[in-house]
Amino acid sequence: MRKKAAVIGVFDGVHEGHRYLLRQLKDIAAGRGLDPVAVTFSRHPLTLVRPEAVPPQICPLPERLELIRREGVEPLLLDFTPELRLMTAREFLEGLKDRGFGLLLMGFNNRIGLDRLSGPELAGGPVEVLTATELPERGICSSEIRAAVSSGNMALAAKMLGRPFALEGEVVGGRRVGRTIGFPTANVSVEPGQLMPPNGVYAACAAGHRAVVNIGRRPTLDNGEDVTVEAHLLDFSGDLYGRTLRVEFLRRLRPEMKFASLDQLKSRIQQDIDSVRDGK
Questions:
Q1: How many domains does the chain have?
Q2: Pairwise CA distance, residues 167 & 161, whole Å
Q3: What pairing do the DSSP bridges indicate for beta strands 101-106 and 4-8?
Q4: Residues 255 and 169 grouped into a single domain
């Protein structure tokens, strides 16, 4: 059986920085006859260390694993248990060795184990440790992507991700008010803990159609407390209920607004649709 080469991380978003690291792993593994593997976790390590500080996820775990595979690297999913949390870096390397790993490539600012050791500090251990080179374009990291999405800067988020930021979920029944005013929407149920753009109206793509998406409490219609994600797909006819819908965000059109009447709301929705259709 061939030995394996590893990188370790949460890989939330599998963004451009992650892909840069995965490509380095592939090149090194190919040159040494090793199989490239990305070791990641079934839950964020902070769920055990500092639960109150767990960041909202950029994309769900199944999508992260698929994005890693698309880079030609096989993911290895570990359960982040209390026992794993208490391992020192060298104990963790011993575990990698037992699993058939001969090399670990660490990010330039990566630290592992309870003792938080870096690559140079792990020289001479049970597994060869190398340090990856830094992505030439600085500032690409999960925290910066969260900041961009949270501020509604979808273009910046897409640049760092290498693809549009997206929300995905089952289309569930709502109040169907949009249908009564001529703009039927798909109400997308988003997984708890998911990173969300700020309330507002967005240009997006969904199911191969351009879309206008509202995130918020619909103050003109019901002034409710629940935040909903509702997508109006342009030039679409059909039933989406029960289907999984992926909504890719392109840009923020405006903040959510309360209108004095349904007619004013309908007029503004039509302006939003025209803006998305024209690409403005």
A1: 2
A2: 14
A3: parallel
A4: yes
Domain range enclosing 17: 4-142
pLDDT tens-digit profile, the chain (280 residues) = 799 999 999 999 999 999 999 999 999 999 999 999 999 999 999 999 899 999 999 999 999 999 999 999 999 999 999 999 999 999 999 999 999 999 999 988 889 999 999 988 998 889 999 999 988 887 899 999 999 999 999 999 999 999 999 999 999 986 656 566 678 899 999 999 999 999 999 999 999 999 999 999 877 776 567 889 999 999 998 889 999 999 999 999 999 988 888 888 889 999 999 999 987 6
- Do 125 and 233 sit in the same domain of this protein? no
Q: Name the pTM for this structure.
A: 0.92
Cα separation of 63 and 21, whole Å? 18
Could you give the C-alpha distances from 276 to 46, 232, 236, 270, 271, in angstroms and in order?
39, 11, 14, 10, 9
CATH at residue 244: 2.40.30.30
